[in-house]
Amino acid sequence: MQTLTLIRPDDWHLHLRDDAALAAVLPDTCRQMGRAIVMPNLKPPVTTVAAAAAYRERILAARPDGSAFEPLMTLYLTDNTRPEEIRLAKASGFVHGVKLYPAGATTNSDHGVTDIFKALPALEAMAETGLPLLVHGEVTDADIDVFDREAVFIERVMKPLLAKLPTLKVVFEHITTREAAEFVAAAPANVAATITAHHLLMNRNALFVGGIRPHHYCLPVLKREQHRQALVKAATSGSAKFFLGTDSAPHAKGTKEAACGCAGMYTANAAIELYAEAFEAAGALDKLEAFASLNGPAFYGLPANGDRIELVKESWTVPAELAYPGGSLVPLRAGEGIAWRLRG
Ligand SMILES: NC(=O)N[C@@H](CC(=O)O)C(=O)O
Ligand SMILES: [Zn+2]
Ligand SMILES: [Zn+2]
After folding, report:
1. Closest CA to 35 of 75, 86, 71
2. Can you tell me the distance from the alpha carbon of 109 to that of 99, in angstroms, rounded to the nearest whole number?
3. For this structure, is 65 an active site residue?
4. Secondary structure of 162-190 in the HEC alphabet?
């Protein structure tokens, strides 16, 4: 049987939610990942180091017995984030990034930034201290087509921001377009990107196969095939700028299968297996370890994990539903097969 041994990966973009939802999803990530960058879009958002410390304690307490999983915390940037909070975050040792959500761009982003330059004092403190800015890169203007929001963000926000603060470390999160992949590849070493498994595996046709498919709806929304191919090319290029970030984003089944369904796909239960499929399809399994286990820690200035995982080429069926408060959780590929299985 074909096997694949990798240094244990990390997830550089993850939604763990809180309370009972946290308890339901965390074991999936603990089984696979050494660490994860934990997104701060709770209700209310995690805007202070004190709130991040408390959230971190709740995550640590919810880990299964014996798990060494380490949550890497983030702050949610607002128009009013003070530079003092940034310096406190850097000094904490457990806050590893600050998240920019353009106001209204995605799930729980109502408190997000209305104009990036309103947050300039905080951004200057980040450039100074080396704390990375993690970016949901979509403009929200009503006149911009939803499929163009990422490409327009590059021109309207990313370029002016980096022109103003050229040394700021930036992670362009969950990139979905050729434009973003090319922008990051051409940028200096302080600019990197995460790529999800679902954007490597699916194009926007997946939203409409035989009818509307709410479990394939996420933000940024899936794009055309040419964009998926550009993401695969970037992820498998060997460039250290691209790394694994699942953007696994659980929502109860009833809130997705609804007249106004929530954005987000749940992939944490099969994350590394889905990435293995995408890399295998591209004939690039030899590039998976750098993408999943080495490039992220290098960018964040952390060591790679000290242990390994093993994947076996053995098909298994993803459960139709998982336990989740407020109903159930429908993972990506629910009831369907995945070609690789994580051993143990
Ligand atoms: N990706 C999503 O579609 N949803 C995320 C938010 C985000 O990452 O934009 C969520 O928190 O549900
Ligand atoms: Zn996002
Ligand atoms: Zn996300």
Report:
1. 71
2. 11
3. no
4. HHHCCCCCEEECCCCCHHHHHHHHHCCCC
Q: Which tokens hold the place of 59? A: 């995550």
Q: Which amino acid is it at 169?
A: K
Q: How far is CA 320 from CA 198, 208, 253, in A?
A: 17, 19, 11
* Predicted pLDDT at 74: 98
pLDDT, tens digit (0-9, with 9 covering 90-100), for 173-213:
999 999 999 999 999 999 999 999 999 999 999 999 999 99
* Cα of 17 from ligand 2 centre, angstroms: 14
b/e per residue 190-220 (b: at least 16 CB within 10 A): bbbbbbbbbbbbbebeebeeeeebbbbbbbb
* Section 5-25 average pLDDT: 98
Q: How far is the CA of 82 from the centre of ligand 3 (A)?
A: 24
Looking only at Cα atoms, what is the longest distance across the chain?
Answer: 56
Element (H, E) at 24: helix 19-32
Tens digits of residue pLDDT in 279-324: 999 999 999 999 999 999 999 999 999 999 999 999 999 999 999 9
DSSP for 235-302?
A: HTS--TTEEE---B----HHHHSSTTPPP--B-GGGHHHHHHHHHHHTT-GGGHHIIIIIHHHHHHT-
The verdict on whether residue 15 carries a ligand-binding annotation is yes
Number of helical (H) and strand (E) elements in the chain, helices listed first:
13, 13
Give φ, ψ of 2 to 5 degrees: -70, 130
Query: Rounded to 5, what percent of the chain is helix, strand, coil?
Result: 40, 20, 40
Number of C-beta neighbours around residue 308 at 10 A: 11
Which DSSP letter does residue 105 get? S
- Taking CA atoms only, the protein residue closest to ligand 1 atom 11 is 107
Answer whether residue 107 shows pLDDT above 90. no
- Which ipTM score applies to this complex? 0.99
The SS3 call for residue 315 is strand
Structure tokens at 286: 């030899």
Share of the chain above pLDDT 70, in %: 100
pTM metric for this prediction: 0.98
